[in-house]
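User: structure tokens for this one?
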Amino acid sequence: MVDVNPLYKLADSMNTHNCADWDTVGGVTGDEGVGKTDLLITLGLIYEGLTIDQIIHPSKEDLVIIETFFRNQMLYVQNAQEIERVIEGCPQYSFIGVDEGMMILYKYEHGTKRQRKLNKYFATCRKNHNNAVFFCMQDFNDFTKFFRNRRIKLWIHIVNRGQAILMTRSSNPVSEDKWNMELFSKLYDKSDGSLEGIASTFANQKYHNFVCTLYWDKLPKVVRDLYDKIRFEIKEKFGELENEEIEADEDKNIWKTRWIKIIAYLYANHNNLLNQTKIAEVCGMQPQRISQVIVQLMKESSEQPI
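Assistant:
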């Protein structure tokens, strides 16, 4: 009996799932250097129809397909323009890989332009796209709780180079932790740390999120060099826009913080002299916005100096 690489089964199930009018969002985690990008590329190319042999020993025709995938279905620069070009511009049922998910999904960067663009996409992704979108992130906890529990369907954690475990989100409608993280952590530490040991422990202790183990080969130099070349070209082209966008978001957050402190200071120190309407006039803002700021942020800001 021929041993079918589980990546084929995973890609096929994702394709079937998406064609049934759903979307598939996944996270790939692991330490730096374990091969998150290699796995992301391999899974994506299999999903798009290539075999493992075509990826490891590509012909000239295969390299044309791989180059097109790298240019149009991998996100290298995390600014709103590239998110729109890649994620929103791909055909329906496509695979999209985000190599540096930390740049647009890090949980402390709410409200940035790129996060707003991504949130808008995921609000309509099933209706308009039905794509498979996978993000590389070093730590699963760096995804927000909402994104983990409501968006991510599949979690792949790389144990060693070329070896990973696959988990799926619980369908329990009332669970506050769809991934049973406490049990995962307990069983992971209980195992011997090998792929077989972790899988055996998860299966024996009935960690129901666990699906199977995955394995893959290191990408050949010709494919990796092509990836690095295209990644460099796109980052050179759009990198300046990314930096400008990040700086604009940082400036916006700085001024937002300053205004919050000013409003809190005025309210805390001049409550007998200035009502909320007067404070709104001083700050050039709407009175209802002043009320919102005071209710939400006065406790943590009122004692801070400007």
